[in-house]
Model the fold of this input.
Amino acid sequence: MDEWKRETQAGNALFEQGDYAMAEQHYLSACHFADIFLMPCADPDGGVAALVVSYQNLAELCRAQGQHPQAMRALQAAHARLSHALSAPGLCHAHQQALLRGSGQAMSVKLVGTCNQAASNR
Done:
């Protein structure tokens, strides 16, 4: 999880500096590490949160650049990854619940983004 934190923090710092190209590289790396930590994970809530945050960061980066379709795809990717993880055999109840919460959170952010984009297009 340390790698994920480093990549996320580096991406956040670069995002704040306006270096979107480099921030994207760190956010993509964070998504990769979060995906690795998602299954199996001793801390299901932490693993799911890392994945959701990673893809939300990537989506926010896309939105900041006016790339709304790419932002939606990032959020869809998070939801798809969580949904896929739910189909894994032998998940404990705690892991199932964490995945469901994360999937709901990813969809909520996606819906808010869709509504905001529709409103700004009027």
The chain has a mean pLDDT of 82. The CA atoms of residues 90 and 96 lie 10 Å apart.
